[in-house]
Amino acid sequence: RIAARDYVQEVVAKESRTLILRASESTLEKLKKEARLGSLIEEKINALDLVDLEKMVLRLARQELRHIEYLGALLGGVIGLLQAVFVLWRM
Asked: Whole-model pTM above 0.85?
């Protein structure tokens, strides 16, 4: 009975070390890849011409603002219709 418990503890200790090593190696590889990707992106952005970068940012902002304007117009229209219905209903 004691021998079985000792054997199980030994196996668990040995296997847990292996699992921990595998998990840490995998995590380390992922971190290395992400770090390389981040530095690569940083290098590409730093290599861009400032005028080109500004044009890109303005183009993206313009697209997003257009969507916000459309959503605002839609919400404004719905609120206006609801107000009109409410005013007519109260008369």
From this structure: no
